[in-house]
Amino acid sequence: MFFCELKDNDFKIVVYCFVIVNCPEGYYLDNNECLPCDIGQYTDEEKQTTCKQCPVDMTTGSLASTNISQCYSLCDVGHYYESISSNCIKCNIGEYQDQSGQTQCKSCPIGETTKDIGSTSITDYLCKLGEELSVTGECVKCPKGSYRDDLDQEYCQACPYGWSTSDVGSTSISQCTVAHCQRGEYLNEDNTCELCEKGTYQPNRGQTSCIACGRGLTTSDKGSTSHDDCRPGPIDECRLDLDDCDDDAECLDEEDGFSCVCNFGFTGNLNGSVCIDNCDNRCDIHGQCHYYNNGNSFCSCQDGYQGDRCDQIEGKLTLYKEYFFVKNFIHFSFIIYCLFCKSFPK
């Protein structure tokens, strides 16, 4: 609003003009500028230079509030103000509020929730399925042999007796499909428990292999659970995988140990610890390697190639043979001619 007035100043008439700012409700005048009332304040009249304060322990939900009815109870952390009932309500499960005087709660991260209503911190959330809260307050995956399929459960649940899971972090009892082997047993490739063979033992549960007694030691029966069960005696190194045979060799158990025999088509050192395929680098790229009945190898060449390794071009070799034959024939003919000439008297 623009306003002017006349004043008599030392016998002079002066015109004074002013800009009058009328701030609306919810705002106050400060240095000729309308500013919104802060949170916790309001103005229910125009042309105000200050805002009114909400009653003790009450606040507003936003700036520029225009009525005391917009003041609500200053709710504690873990709560939010509900305008319909004018009450402070605890945050629901899956939500939290770490600040006071709020009108809504914050949501937990995706896949996570809280264990109770009225949570006051993001750290109050429950771990997601397949995890549990550790003693340090961190979420860790359920160990093998357990699962967690319900957010209301605080900790992971053990699989039924005799069963385990194939990995950590299982989220359902349906993942308890691996047999949980007992001491003296191991889990075989069929996911079933099998007794440790003679000469081996297993002191722990839920293992996938047994421990060998060592050279010269064996056990009296299958299913041993301790190294104390190992006694001096003959053992089958081949069956217990104590041999050092090559992967391409067969282990043969013997009275005083074992021996290794290379497989068909392989040649090795004296003890069979190293076996080499007889077709390795045997033929050139123009040939294909085959085995004789005795395991030795030979090369069958493509058309146009020959030689033991099929690395010679057939045409060039034939031309060389023909040249060699003609050269020798001429040389031989010359010798005969010379001998014939010497046989006649001059």
UniProtKB/TrEMBL annotation:
The keyword Hydrolase does not apply. Disulfide bonds join C279-C289, C301-C310. One of its GO terms (cellular component) is extracellular space. Residues 234-272, 276-311 form the EGF-like domain. It comes from the Eukaryota. GO terms for molecular function: calcium ion binding. The keyword Disulfide bond applies. Pfam families: Ephrin_rec_like (PF07699). One of its GO terms (biological process) is signal transduction. Keywords: Disulfide bond, EGF-like domain. This is EGF-like domain-containing protein. It comes from Lottia gigantea (Giant owl limpet). The lineage of its organism: Eukaryota, Metazoa, Spiralia, Lophotrochozoa, Mollusca.
